[in-house]
Amino acid sequence: MAHERGGAASSAAAPASEEDALFIDLLHEAPLSGHREPRSIVGGTLYCILLAGYAAVAVSAPWIFYLVPDMIPPLLCSSNVILLVLTGIFQQYWIHQVRKVRLQGYYDFSEKLKRIARLPFATIASGIALMLLIIVWQPLGQLLSISLLLRIIIVVEATCAGCFMSLYLWHIHKYNSLNGHPDILRSLYSALQPSSTLEDRRYYDGRLSDQQMALLQYQRENIHYLSEEVLRLQECLSKYQRTDVGSTPQADLAHLLASRDQELRALSAEMNQVHSELQLARNLIDEKDSETQRIRVSNNQYIEENDRLRAILGEWSARAAKLERALEAERISSIELRKTIAKLRGQTYKEQNA
Fold first, then answer.
1. pTM summary value
2. Is 321 exposed, middle or buried (0-12, 13-18, 19+ CB in 10 A)?
3. What start-end ranges are recorded for coiled-coil regions in this protein (predicted)?
């Protein structure tokens, strides 16, 4: 009897093995990082190939355009402008990639990538500015030919831009090979993790609101992902409930649905917590702004009072100067009067003696 039950169980498990395999991958999917999409490195690779070809053309320009050597500087300048336009187009694509990385919860990583993604365009723009300076000041100095100087600038800017792009591709490869949780969860207080020492620095720097907005966007992506997972699992559950395959897939599916629903509720609670923290941060910023406004008003009042006192002091200084001039005039007239009196006394004394 036991052998019959064992055989029946093995026969029931055999057809259900393929159906159970549908849910094996779900067990290994983490809701916070399991649906992370790798970023493509095709655009950066094409740009590096473009830079290498451009530098090669610049180096071999005297041999390529040996029939028209006078056209080398205009062609190099025009091609550099075209490279600047192409770099701007590639930069928009890289910024779009950085936004995708940010939505996956890698805030610090995306900030680093954003700074690196803007360096090639700045390098090419600096090279064009240096070309313009050389063309403008070229009549004043003839140490090197303008064609050679332009080719040196192109090689240097292509090398620098290629180095920056290689660094960007290395970071993208590092992102594609990441296995850990997003760094945005380590930078802010989370309902799913203990706060540890993060509570003391929750409002430490000005990037907190930006980080909270990134965390909100990340949690919205997770909630959307988990909602789709719940809907998909509910459809699978309803499909398996209409079959007579057995109770094992339904039990596994119910367990997965319960875990996904619990995770969704935890994420909703965390999102509400972040909303409240963001509101508190905004209130603190408003209080600081109002206090700054009061200080500015008081400062303006002090400035007006200081100007008024300076005006009064200037007026009294003018009056004191007038009084000093009048006193000096009186002193001079008194001295002259004394001299006149002394002269008259001398004449009177002479008349009496005579």
1. 0.49
2. exposed
3. 264-326
Contact 128, 81 (CB under 8 A): yes
Between 208-241 and 72-103, two packed helices, what is the crossing angle to 10 degrees?
Answer: 60
* Mutual angle of helices 72-103 and 146-176, in 10-degree steps: 20
Residues 47, 85: Cα–Cα separation, whole Å: 12
Using a CB cutoff of 8 Å and minimum separation of 24, what contacts does 18-27 make? 19/240, 19/245, 19/249, 20/248, 20/249, 20/252, 22/236, 23/236, 23/249, 23/252, 23/253, 23/256, 26/229, 26/233, 26/256, 27/256
User: What's the chain's length in residues?
Assistant: 354
34 in helix, strand or coil? coil
Q: Is 39 exposed, middle or buried (0-12, 13-18, 19+ CB in 10 A)?
A: buried
Tokens of 290: 């109002």
pLDDT tens digits for 224-259? 667 777 777 777 777 766 664 555 555 676 777 788
> Distance between CA atoms of 168 and 121, rounded to whole angstroms?
13
Residue 265 vs residues 1, 223, 309: alpha-carbon distances, Å: 47, 9, 66
Look up tokens 């209130």; give the residue: 283
- Tell the burial category of 205 from Cβ atoms under 10 Å away from its Cβ (0-12, 13-18, 19+): exposed
DSSP state of 260: H
Q: Which residues contact 75 (CB under 8 A, 6 or more apart)?
A: 61, 65
| pLDDT tens-digit readout, 276-293 | 888 888 888 999 999 999
- Whole-angstrom distance, CA of residue 93 vs CA of residue 172: 13
Is 5 in a helix, a strand, or coil? helix
